[in-house]
Specification:
This protein is globular. Strands 2-3-1-4-5 form a 5-stranded parallel beta sheet, sandwiched between helices. It contains 7 helices and 5 strands. It is α/β, with parallel strands linked by helices.
Length: about 160
Amino acid sequence: MNALIWITGIPCTGKSTLAEALTADLDATILDDKRMRHEFWPHLGQADTDWACDTLALGMFASVILGLGRDVIVASVSPIRDMRQKVRETVTFAGHRWLEVAVRCEMDEIKRRDRSGLYATLPNFFWGAPNKEDGALELDSTTLAPIFMAALIRKEMRCES
């Protein structure tokens, strides 16, 4: 049974870095939202409909890869809970495992990491990142190094199997 680890959080929290750290000892395909948007759907903007389309498309790519027998790690802002839930339902219905990871970070650190200037133009960039009641594993990249967050995710995956 293959697994989809869906890493979500606002930009600059360390989602992509965490995905890379996970592949150090997990043979998985990474679908990085930034790269996927740039390559496959650069026309998408920041509207809710764009994010919904983005999340569902990432979910479709992930489902295909899972069907080929590989684990998948998605690193995506994916701000709309309902869309993440649709992907989760599709993945688990097909018999695959799902783990949602919410990466948090203090705003001062996020702004320090922001090389694109996003937070200078959108200072209140807060979306519907998952809450604990959503069942997501919540990690704080302000205080935890990627290697330690990856170890916590691997531990969580072992507990669920």
